Amino acid sequence: MAKTVCIVGAGPSGLVAAKTLLHDTPGCSFKVTIFEAQSRIGGLWPIRKDDDGGLVHPLMVTNQSKHTVQFSDFAWQDSVPQFPRAWQVGQYLERYINEYSGADIRLGHKVVKVDLQDDGSWNVQTESSEGSETATFDYLLVTTGFFGKPIWPDHVPKEADVPIIHSSEYRDLKGLLERSSNPSGKILVVGGQMSGIETAATIATHLSSAIHSPGKKIIEQLLQEPQSYSIHHITNRPSWVFPLFTSPKPAASAPPFLPCDLPSYNLANRPHPLTNSQGHIGLEAAQTSNSIYQSVLGTDQSEFSPKTKIDGHLFNEQPFVAMSSYYMNFVQSKFIQVTKGKLSSIKGDVAIISPANRKLSDIAAVVLATGFDSSLSLSFLPSSVLQAISYSPENPNLPVALAFHGTHHPSLPTLGFVGLYRSPYWGVMEMQARFVARLWASNDPQSRAPALRQALAEDDTIERTLALRTDSRVSQFPMGDYSFLMQEFSRALDIPISPPVGNTPPLATGKSMDILTPARYPSFSAATAQNPRAAEQTKANLLATHETALAGLSRGRFVAGAIFRSLLGEWRLERKISSRLPSHPSGRFSGTARFLLRDGTEDGLSPSLVSKANSDSGTGLGLEYLYIEDGVFTARANPILTFRATRRYIWRYDEARDVLSVWFSRMDDHERADYLFHEVEFLLPVDEADMKVQGETTPMTTGAAAEDKEKGKKGWLAKASHMCIDDLYDVHYEFNFKAVNLKEWKLGYTVKGPNKDYTIDGVYKR
To answer: What is the per-residue pLDDT across 397-439, written as a single tens digit (0 to 9) for each?
Structure first.
């Protein structure tokens, strides 16, 4: 007879648990019912672009790529970006549960109370629009997740003279400021970890777009002078801020780029068997981790701001990590101003920042990035169960103490958990679901496989969790590091990791990348060919990861995006003009170039492209830069001849095509794009030995590994061309990185035509 299972929550954890129980449990049959309080599946993840009623902005970009945000046997569509938007994650989940159907999913049913019976079964009471119902199940699986409700600090009033919201509520500037009585002033973002940095960068992007977009301003009725607002980020300590694309070869002169999680989860970089790098972080471990992060980023972050610098005593502390493409450059340009400390109180439009009791006046709005409390996710459990699992709301990072990496408690054999921890990597959720299913598949512990029995006997997760609650050196993500957790579940479940598909070019270590993804641990139905489609989907996942790594390492993919991201802000520009015709004077230009971030505009684009981007399945037009160059030209032959010169362009990055392009601005409206100037064509690195054999030595043909006798290896080289009536513009670029950040770049033109013959060489430096 089938065993009945009640799953609470239809987010990723609940859905993968249902799929596992129904499709991947050999020799055992379960009947699964999922109760979901919302009117849709997905949990945190919305399933439509306009679904903004949840805790996650539907347009938010994931901070791990689709190679990590995946289940082993269900592949992403090729059209989805490397870092999906939140609504695309919701749609992935919708397709997933349709592919692996069989569960009775009851939407709009909130579990309000459960009772443990003497025989181990569970009475589950739910409420819906149809009233209250109670049903009995053999097993109860809690998959309600870590993000129960936003944390609102006691010292911050719910009602104040200025609008105060939690970061989970932020959607746009209009919603934030429409209740503000202050038509200008400081927007405070409070909280220094992941959500604080992400929220500050999001607001900065929206404000920058409001200031620099053409035509009628997005929120003109609210922001008559949007530049009168400023963003202040209140943080107690700096975090290492990683862009979404990093390099597995940060020391290379022309570093390749990959989605950040592919280099991070490269098993070739770690000794085996893996040891846990999270939990308690001792002095040596802290120094090692901080050194690695500094090496990957190529900086201690002091060039962005003294307040983001990590060195000295901070190198001895456990590191904190955040993800953002634009935060650091917004800080560097002072568009985001960092204040060290904590918000201690707010009265009127004045905030007090401790411990120095610094006053910040003229506050327009406050956004609290103060994290989440899981208590709402567990409120239906009886007090005896909460006591057994050592529930502690005072420890929001470790609210419960569960056995074998957050899956169960030995005293409650019919109760299981999936996904109740911070950083719920999808592979770990899937492994947790497999572990719980394996426990429940047999009522006799002695009939369990030896590996599972040994794992249970040696497990010390509960004791370790309780100790970490009072550990002053606890890590940012204390449950355990992703790769280690996958290894431990693999051992316990006897699911060996499959070999990677194909090889990638060797890194500095001489080894090929060995990238950990959920698909490396195939499900039972995929591994046994019980479900041929599951096996196909697993293979598709593996091939997609291999192709992504190969494209980044050997074809220059993602370089254009890394350059686009790193251009944000202001550059010093020195340009030399050398004319071979007396009608055009030679000379030098000195000034600045500013790249001002804004929402993508339609100007100059084809109607079909705009329609596709803005469709229900499109990801929008992305972001672009308004480029403003301003300075003074001085003639070489006549230094008295000087005049101010300025020009504007629009720089765009097409994420789907991975193409960087430059557009002329309109003569009648310099904020609008007119027509395409050129697309940037990157030259692939060529091995120096090959160059000598081929006799190719010019900078425009040797690629990014070309040698310059005086300056050493060049960075990424690129070229373009543009025919302007009778004049041909040959364009050449050189982009010099230090690890992930663009430090200096060069842009030159050779212009030839009936009445033109000159060259321009410009150098851009921070």
So the answer is: 899 999 999 999 999 999 999 999 877 689 999 999 999 999 9
User: Using alpha carbons only, what angle is made at residue 621 by residues 617 and 627, rounded to the nearest 5 degrees?
Assistant: 170
Q: Which residues constitute the domain of residue 215?
A: 151-370
Domain count, the chain: 3
Determine how many CB atoms are found less than 10 A away from the CB of residue 78: 8
Bond from prior residue into 273 cis (ω within 30 degrees of 0)? yes
Residues 144 and 155 in one domain: no
Q: What is the rounded CA–CA span in Å between residue 385 and residue 124?
A: 14
Note the pTM of the prediction, 2 decimals: 0.94
Q: What angle do CA 48, 53, 58 make, to 5 degrees?
A: 40
Chain segment 619-670, per-residue pLDDT in tens: 999 999 999 999 999 999 888 889 999 999 999 999 999 999 999 999 999 9
Question: 3-state secondary structure string, 9-26?
Answer: CCCHHHHHHHHHHHHCCC
In a domain, 505, yes or no: no
Is 590:677 a contact under the CB 8 Å cutoff? Answer: no
- Contacts of 87-91 with C-beta under 8 Å, sequence gap 24+, read 87/45, 87/46, 87/47, 87/48, 87/49, 87/51, 87/58, 87/59, 88/619, 89/42, 89/45, 89/62, 90/40, 90/41, 90/42, 90/45, 90/46, 90/47, 90/48, 90/51, 90/58, 91/47
* Alpha carbons 402 and 465: distance in angstroms, whole number: 8
Q: For strand 642-654 and strand 659-665, is the pairing parallel, antiparallel, or unpaired?
A: antiparallel
Three-state secondary-structure class, residue 438: helix
